Amino acid sequence: xxxxxxxxxxxxxxxxxxxxxxxxxxxxxxxxxxxxxxxxxxxxxxxxxxxxxxxxxxxxxxxxxxxxxxxxxxxxxx
Length: 78
What we know:
Strand content: under 5%
Number of helices: 2
Order of helices and strands: HH
Number of strands: 0
Distance between the termini: 17 Å
Structural class: mainly alpha
Helix content: over 70%
Oligomer: single chain
Shape: elongated
Radius of gyration: 17 Å
Largest sheet: none
């Protein structure tokens, strides 16, 4: 049960990382003075906060990657 929750958390954070990356790229591709179709204008502090969060997510994923790899290997052999 605990392992299943860990795997679900791991998959959630991978999905969250991908969505956050797409969100940052989508909203930071144009300069402020150009046409921005429903894009959010980040200042430097907000963008830095998002990048820090992205870094923390990557650290969590990398720390738990080995645990989930071991679980997948044992799951395949059963």
